[in-house]
Every structure is written in structure tokens, then in C-alpha cells.
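User: Let's play a game. I give you a shape written as C-alpha cells, and you guess the letters that built it. Ready? Here's round one.
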């Protein structure tokens, strides 16, 4: 993938789903205190879990792009 090209359609969908889960309607689904998970109210745990999922997606996207750059050289 060249530097100026867009990410793949799958990655755009992945990050779109993650964003919606953190904004709307995800916030409505998780908007409660009980159950407590790892000592956190469910609402806070919901956001921490999605931030971790986004991090994993960014690592995968970075490795795919870095691998393609090595192949191009």
C-alpha cells in the first residue's frame, strides 16, 4: 500500500464499528453501573475494553502496512 492510499475497506468498517460501540448506540447499551467487572462499573469497563480492541486493530493495521513496505523495497 502506498503512503497516499486509503486503508482497506475491512479496516474502515472495523474502526467504524469500534467507534459506534463507544459513542452511539454503544453508550446506551452500556449505560449502567452493575455489574462490576474488575472493580470497574460496567460503563467504564465497556470503554476500556473498546480502547483495547482499537489498539489491537491499530497494531494489526500497522503490521500489515509495514510488511507491505518491506515487500516493495
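Assistant: Ready! My guess for every position:
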Amino acid at each position: 500500500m502506498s503512503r497516499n492510499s486509503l486503508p482497506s475497506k475491512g479496516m474502515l468498517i472495523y474502526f467504524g464499528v469500534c467507534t459506534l460501540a463507544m459513542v452511539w448506540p454503544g453508550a446506551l447499551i452500556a449505560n449502567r453501573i452493575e455489574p462490576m467487572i474488575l472493580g470497574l462499573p460496567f460503563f467504564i469497563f465497556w470503554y476500556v475494553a473498546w480502547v483495547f480492541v482499537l489498539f489491537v486493530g491499530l497494531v494489526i493495521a500497522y503490521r500489515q502496512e509495514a510488511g507491505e513496505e518491506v515487500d516493495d523495497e
